[in-house]
Each structure stands twice: as C-alpha cells, then as structure tokens.
Protein: RBR-type E3 ubiquitin transferase
Organism: Penicillium nordicum
Amino acid sequence: MDPNATDLETADLVLQTSLQEVEEALRLLNRDANDGRAQARDEKVALLYWRAELRRRIRAQQDRREALQISRESRLDQAAILQDIHGREVNEAPAVHVQPAGRAPTQPQVPGPQVPSQPQESRRTLGNPDVLTQTRKRAYDTTTAVVPHYGVLRECVACSESYPESGMIRNSCSHIYCQGCITHLLENSLADESLFPPRCCRLPLPLEATRGIINVDLWARFEEKKIEHGDKHRTYCSDPACSRYILPSRVRGTIGTCRVCNRKTCTLCKKETHQGECVDDRIEVLELGKAKGWQRCLNCSHLVELRSGCNHITCRCRHEFCYVCSTPWKQCECAHWDEAMLEERAGVIAARNQPARPARQVVEQAAQFLVEQHDCYHDGAWKKLGISAECEECGDLMPDYIFECRHCGLQACNACRINRF
C-alpha cells in the first residue's frame, strides 16, 4: 500500500473526528443559547475559529490527494516514454563490424539478421559520470516534448489555490474551480437545498463536464437529487433513522416503499403505511406556525420564518414570494418591509465597527439606506473586508476576511457569495 495514501487516510480520520466533536460542542452551545455568560460567548467564538480551521485543513488534505494522483499519473507517463525512447535508440543503433587485421572479405556480405552491439558512445558512458549525466539530460530534454502537458496554472475561485487549467472546470461566468472544490460544491448541494442546483454567479455549472471527475456514487446521488428537487409532492421514508427520499417509481397508489430499508410510507400523511383514513397532525404544526407568524411556501410547502429585513422571501427551493401574503414576489400590494424588523436590521448594520452603541442618527441613516436598497439581489456589488466576521447566511466564522454587499450591507463568505445568492 502507498504510504502516502495511508498517511492521508489517517489524517482524514483525525480531522473528521475532530470536526464532529466541534460540531457537537457547537450544537450544545446553541441549544443553551439563552446563556448570556461571557465565557459561553468566548467558547463559541473559539469553537467557530477551530471549525473553520478544521474545514480548511480537510480541504487541503483533499487537494493534496488530488495532487498526488496527478503526480503518479505523470510519473507513469514519463517512465513509459523514456522506455520507448530507449528502445528506439537500441533498435536504430548501427552495428559495429570488426574486420580482422590483414584480411579482406572473400565474398560479398549477405544481408541478414544482425544482433546490434552496444554503440561506442554507450560504452564510453559506462564509468564516466559526466557523459552519463549528459546522456540523461538529452533523454529528459527529448521527453519534455512529448510528456502530456497539463496546461497553464489557474487560480480556483473557491480555495484560491493554483492548478493546471486542463483539470479544472470553467463556468460561463468565467470563474474556474479545481476538482476538489467542484466535488465539495456538489456534495454540499446534496445536503443544503438552497445550493441546489449548483451554480456560480447565478449561472448553472457545466455539470456534464464533471462526470469524469467525481465518483460514480456521488453522480448517482446527484441524479437522484434532481428528481427530488423537481418533485412538488415529495415523500420521505417514515423511519426517522432513514428519512431517504422515495422515488416516484417506487410509489404504488398512495404507498411508497423505501429502497434503502424497505419501510412503507403513506404518501398522503407521510407516516408509516396504515389502514383507514389518515390522521393528519400537520394542522398542529401549521397552527403553531400561524401563532409564531411563520409563512408557508406555496411551491414546496415548507414553513419559513422571517427574522429581519424586508418581506421579500427566497425559499430554499428558490421560489420568491411575499412574506405577508405568500403570493409570488411583486404581485401584491403589501408593504415591502416591516418597520420593526427594518429598524432591527439597521441597528445591526450601524453597530458594525462601532466601539459603543451607535447613535440614533446612525441607525436612522442605516434604516433609510435599507429602505432604498431593500429589494437587493447582490448583483456583483461586493467589497472585501479584511476582518474576522461570521457569514450571515451559513453562520461560518471567516477568520481572515468577509464580503459585504455594497447595496444592502449583507456580510457573506465567498462560498455563499458566488454559490448561494
């Protein structure tokens, strides 16, 4: 077994285990969110920093694995070419015929198979390091003309590392992704529906070009996700330990069968298959949502909660609607924002980089700014700030820099900036 591969597997296991421990610690802290102790806040900041560092190291490990694979392939190609060159030199070498002194051939030489002898230059090479070095240099110089060329190096928009362009994926927005980052993006889109389908700068990524890069299992899961994403009446396995999406092809009447655990689920009430009428307890959830002021997406039926900002909602299924009445966005007469939420958001923006509580005038200016820019699509208006800040979309702590929308003041990490909005 390759010792490099063994080392990488061990490092991956350690990093993944550490990341799971940090995620669990953060989950426990978030569960006790009402704890206002300064120590708890410090613990969360430290854990967020460590989580960001672990994710960076995991990505670096995956990039290293890709680089080792390319290096191995390059060495194999080079060895085959050198062997071919050596074979041609031997076959093309002229035979050396030594005639005994004082004797001449009595009859013409008859052409026949010859056993090639070692060229004179090759014999001189043995035991002569200088000549051997020059011979090797000529061989490698010849090789450089035919060894597969991986192209110029390009910077990956996601990880900022440089890789040969021939092995990267270019989107129509001109951004380029390395193999590791395009795989990460596909995997993340399967877990977070707001990232599906994978896109960059709101333009779909050329996913067919990735089929030769990602493994078969990931591609199969991606194809299944496309079916799930387009299904407005999805049914998931009623077993909480499974919860896998049930494909339409595995539904007969009102009963769907999970292909993973074979559990049967009612497609009407989404519970385990039963006799008689469905008992729909979703009414209780909807009543709770109504009491909390939540709204329901009419496209995918998920409940959505607006915590700050304007009434323009973009659901994770990408459906845009009014938070007040649920109708498609800009097709109603409702107010575009709630005054209390607008002021709350203005206070957050005004408090940035302020040593003390911002003055009322500063908050009012921020509120007026939001009124003018409330319907923001973050179209190419980002500035990079060299500060440590938490992404307001995914919650990840960015230790070195954050992007801020010039229009609405939203702060986001690079991944959310180019892949989520």
